[in-house]
Amino acid sequence: MTGVDKFSGAAPRACAFFPGQKSRGRVSPPGFFFFLRAALSLILPFPAFSQQDGQPGAAQGRGDGAPVYAPANPATGGIDVNALNAAGDFRVGVQAYYRYAFNEAILSFERALSFRPGEAIILDWLGKAYYRSGLEDTAIRQWRAAAAAYGWNSGQGMLLGTKIETVSNRRFLLPVADDGVRYVESGRYPGHYGDYVLYRQPSAVLPLEDGSAWVVACGSNEIVRIDVNGVVKDRKRGPLNGFDRPYDLVRGSGGRLYLSEYRGGRVSVLDGSGDWQAYIGSKGLGDGMFMGPQNMTVDGQGYLYVVDYGNRRISKFDPDGAFILSFGQKAPYFPGFLSPTGIAAGGDRVYAADAAAKRIYTFDQNGSYLGVLVEEGLAGPESLRFLPDGRLLAADTNRVLLVDPDSAMVRELGVAGNSNVRIVGADMDRNGNILAANFAAGEVSVLTRFDDLASGLFVQIERVFADSFPQVTVEISVEDRLRRPIVGLEGLNFLLSEQGRAAGEQSFMRPAWLSDRADVSVLVERSPATRGMRDDLAAALRDINEALAGKGRVLSLVSAGEQPERERLGGSLETAARGNTASYSPRWRFDLGLRLAATDLLSGEKKRALVYVGSGNTGELAFERYGLSELAAYLANNGIVFHAVITGGGAPSPEIRYLCGETGGEALPLYRPQCIGEMIRGIAAKPSGTYTLSYRSQLPADFGRAYLPVEAEVYLMERSGRDSSGYFPPLE
């Protein structure tokens, strides 16, 4: 039934609650409209929407503080019964969404749509709720319908179009250099600002987990830490006598750093903050001595390899700095180094570049020569760095190359555009950019994937807190198109606005990437296969809990039986992990258990993980209700990493590996030499792209009944992204 004015027989049309809806009939008398609105407001709070560009907005204020409502646009709806019912359900849905009750939000938005079919803003919010629930295909359908209702060429329509394209196309999580993708220069960290010198002659970069990077400034005898905006945050100049032409910086075991000093003929040992601790080696020709040490690498066991340029050799040291051996001299099967430069150790291989020979050689960890990896296509290779996917990043004169150690294939990733170029060091930062140290130009070039630069940043307003209105707090997630979190942003990267005006008193709060705490939810398999492994299940919980000590907590433990349930955590975790014998069933449900365990994490720490403990086989009913891709999306879209601890000596199934891969987790056996503690402790070290900001709203709240809009824009170098949302202030 449509709302009909029983006095005139026409549908009333006075105030636009939901843009995009058309109303027929003449306008009700103003006196009746205000009487009807006042009466209904006593029993049903509802949002008011402005008519500017179809965007949801607040009621307009009057000079005496009383709200005044703009007259309806003939193209939008009115205050009939359907509109009011829809408004009530819409409010419930928005509030449920911000409580992480996504299923409740979906039901509320669906009810609202039953009253106002095709309403753009309801469809938009319904898409958000489906997205956070892991149902991405359904979310995209709702967003398409919303964009069509807004108008694809409207501001909101174009914003949704970008979101649809990003969600549809992304496939990977980790920062990898995919075949065919080219990197272009997106910015620079200049070495000087006007007449003020920031640093001179950068020779190497060492990216950090917070998105910043240490830059080795050979010309100014220091290392400087530069954030994602190119701002120098810290600088270290060594002990009292200072660094003497520092050249390369690498990360060793135990958090220590190694810094080679070319003219000093030594390697400085630094702590994780860059403060000097000790020296390794000294000038000379003997064992463990150097004549111009340059590039370095550390292998998986913590052994340090130093390219001794003047002695044309490579020296190997143990983690404490004791000399072990040197190699690279001329031998029957090896011509000897002419100009040794870059070096990288991975697996049981050591790769070393020679700029004069224009080759990359391969050795084993004992220095035995194994052959030439690359002998064509190089102009003058210098630094070598391993990427997370096992391929090598090579600096080669004015370009950065990708080298595959398995196939020896070489591909050009990008070229620095400055005419005065000599790239001597390059590495990939935590945000997936390549940082290239341009020694000749005295600056660091930032190279970004071309498609990332074109698509911009993926920004989402995840939550709005308005309990202290007009003080409003906003949680914002910033990712790239591959779902990689963008870390290291600061207040200058954000702009919050209300109805096109900058929000007042904007304040940047502590970002999630600075947190060193994590929440973990454990999913324990209750199948016949694990019934005989109850001691292993208990051991796994003990190890998890010990690894989290001081850095996190086990938030919940879910038994994945035929009907998954939360175990009581008041007593021993090991006892809870063993479970009740009756709970083990061949009809155990992996999907329902995972959803329950993941839901417990939504309101917890932003660094969070779901740890599955079981045989590695998900069972016959694993995906009866929720598909594998839906489960992966539910975890990834809510920032939850999936780890697996495999008991009983089995192997993780492809489904388990898929969930790990899609969320950035690992699958490890319970009993392994390194134990699982490192994996668990690493949860707190995972980067997070969630940021919290606050502002003071200038919009009138209509006693808590108005739907108030907020928009967030994020800028980083040449990239940007934005999102819009809204909220209801508390009822007065």
How would you portray this structure in words?
The N terminus is likely disordered. The protein is globular and about 90 Å long. The chain is about 20% helix and about 30% strand. By secondary structure, the chain is of the alpha+beta class. It starts with about 30 loop residues before the first helix and ends in a 5-residue tail after the last strand. The strands form eleven sheets. A six-stranded mixed β-sheet has the order 36-35-34-37-38-39, with helices on both faces. Strands 3-28-27-26 form a four-stranded antiparallel β-sheet. A four-stranded antiparallel β-sheet has the order 6-7-8-9, with no helix packed on it. A hairpin with a 2-residue loop joins strand 31 and strand 32. It contains 14 helices and 42 strands.
User: Percent of residues in beta strands?
Assistant: 25-35%
Amino-to-carboxy terminus distance: 32 Å
Could you report the average pLDDT, rounded to the nearest whole number?
Answer: 86
Helical percentage: 10-25%
Number of helices: 14
Structural class: alpha+beta
Q: What's the overall geometry? A: globular
| Strand numbers in spatial order across the main sheet | 36-35-34-37-38-39
Cα-atom radius of gyration: 30 Å
The main sheet comes to: 6 strands, mixed
Counting DSSP E segments of at least 2 residues, the number of strands comes to: 42
List unreliable stretches of 5+ residues: 1-77
Notable traits:
single chain, 732 residues, alpha+beta, 14 helices, disordered N terminus
SSE order and pairing:
Elements: H1 30-41, E1 60-61, E2 67-68, H2 81-98, H3 102-115, H4 120-132, H5 136-150, H6 155-169, E3 183-190, E4 192-193, E5 196-197, E6 202-207, E7 213-217, E8 222-226, E9 232-236, E10 246-251, E11 257-261, E12 266-270, E13 276-280, E14 293-298, E15 304-308, E16 313-317, E17 323-327, E18 340-346, E19 349-354, E20 359-364, E21 369-374, E22 381-386, E23 392-396, E24 399-403, E25 410-415, E26 423-428, E27 434-438, E28 443-449, H7 450-455, E29 458-465, E30 471-479, E31 494-498, E32 501-502, E33 504-508, E34 518-525, H8 528-531, H9 534-548, E35 552-560, E36 565-566, H10 573-578, H11 590-599, E37 608-614, H12 628-636, E38 640-646, H13 654-663, E39 667-669, H14 677-681, E40 690-696, E41 708-716, E42 719-727
Parallel strand pairs: 34-35, 34-37, 37-38, 38-39
Antiparallel strand pairs: 1-2, 3-28, 4-5, 6-7, 7-8, 8-9, 10-11, 11-12, 12-13, 14-15, 15-16, 16-17, 18-19, 19-20, 20-21, 22-23, 23-24, 24-25, 26-27, 27-28, 29-30, 30-40, 31-32, 31-41, 33-40, 35-36, 41-42
Helix pairs in contact: 2-3, 3-4, 4-5, 5-6, 11-12, 12-13
